[in-house]
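INTERNAL AUDIT FORM
Audit reference: QA-55
Scope: verify that the stored structure record matches its stored sequence.
Auditor: D.O.
Record contents follow.
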Amino acid sequence: MNRVILAYSQLRGDLPAAQRERLRAQLPYARRLRMPFDAGRQSQTYLGLALACRLLSDASVRRVEPSALRFARTGKPYVPGGPDFSITHAGEWVLCALAAEGEVGIDAEEYGAACPSAATLAAWTAKEATVKAARATLAELDQVQLQGRRIAFRGRSWYCTTPRLGLPLTVRVVTARRVTQWLLRALPSESALAA
């Protein structure tokens, strides 16, 4: 059974500088060096990592701290031996998907976000979620082949789903194994950051 937990949180404004610095200090040194300079991007990144740590802690029944995170060459965070997860943000929203089995990627875009059509936005989010699931780079985006709810990439088949969140976003989750159960969790940003 491949249960996917999807947590999402709304971030209204930047996190205070002291809180950003506290969160930064918890990250591995190499990741600290690659943090964006913009306070808004930092806030989104920290909230995404906090959501991931919250889901990882819930899944493993032990507290997972940001210092336990490692980062693939492409920048995707992971915990050695832990379940796969993926983070995205769009506008004020930050989302994290964690798969019980196999790889997972998530992407979200705001409606009308400089996109000519809903179909184009849906295709873009599906492709970007696939690249994230495969730990690939955006340079490989044109190699992702959409085939309805199935996707072909790097000689593998992937499953694409659209979770119903009721948010003003186009969201796609791509997994290596078919999702058999969803657990959707709206978490206030204060709650996610306190965990």
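Auditor finding: record pair retrieved intact. The chain has one domain: 3-194.
Action required: none
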